Amino acid sequence: MRNAPIRATAAMGVTACRLVDVTDARAQLIDHISAEAVFHGDFTLTSGKKATYYVDLRKVSLDHRVAPLIGQVMIDLIADVPDVFAVGGLTMGADPVAAAILHQGAARGLTYDAFVVRKEPKDHGRGKQVEGPDLQGKRVIVLEDTSTTGGSPLKAAEALEKVGAEVVAVAVVVDRATGAREIIEAAGYQYLAAIGLEDLGLV
């Protein structure tokens, strides 16, 4: 299995790896999101619907304190999906999440690569829409920071399948419970969410 964790020991001639307390990482991540990324007021969502709060995950996903926590929590979330080659999604919400998984995975001895899906194919150069490693025949997970309508992950999945990737799941950091799960599962993809509204005290 490509991403079976490596546990190094002194007998192997390398420094022993400290196992991450994922439960603690998730609790810390929830605290950071609640304190720094949840805004109250009158907001219009991507769907056009109105909301009294907004979760702006980029306030924390690009923060040096929080990005490692996102990587740790998301690695634990996708750990049971076998033989995943790479992770990523539609730019730009998915980009920091993919980078966090890539770096935290490497620190654990895992081999997740990352990719970026442009909103539209480039109009110059090689005209690519999916940037990163060759994904032909590879199992990939589509990421999203905060799900609302499910439109962004599905657009990314469509582009990935055009280049021959096998999309095996959609994984989001925060699920807003606004129908994305149902839409994505209806499209035939497994849906995984690390944090729900109840975790953030929003229900």
UniProtKB/TrEMBL annotation:
It catalyses: orotidine 5'-phosphate + diphosphate = orotate + 5-phospho-alpha-D-ribose 1-diphosphate. It holds the Pfam family Pribosyltran. Its cofactor is Mg(2+). Residues 106-183 form the Phosphoribosyltransferase domain. 5-phospho-alpha-D-ribose 1-diphosphate binds at R118, K119, K122, H124, E144, D145, T146, S147, T148, T149, G150, G151, S152. SUPFAM superfamilies: PRTase-like. CDD domains: PRTases_typeI (cd06223). Orotate binds at T148, R176. Keywords: Glycosyltransferase, Magnesium, Pyrimidine biosynthesis, Transferase. Its EC number is 2.4.2.10. Pathway: Pyrimidine metabolism; UMP biosynthesis via de novo pathway; UMP from orotate: step 1/2. GO terms for molecular function: glycosyltransferase activity. The keyword Glycosyltransferase applies. The keyword Transferase applies. Homodimer. Belongs to the purine/pyrimidine phosphoribosyltransferase family. PyrE subfamily. NCBIfam families: pyrE. Catalyzes the transfer of a ribosyl phosphate group from 5-phosphoribose 1-diphosphate to orotate, leading to the formation of orotidine monophosphate (OMP). This is Orotate phosphoribosyltransferase. It comes from Plantibacter cousiniae. The lineage of its organism: Bacteria, Bacillati, Actinomycetota, Actinomycetes, Micrococcales.
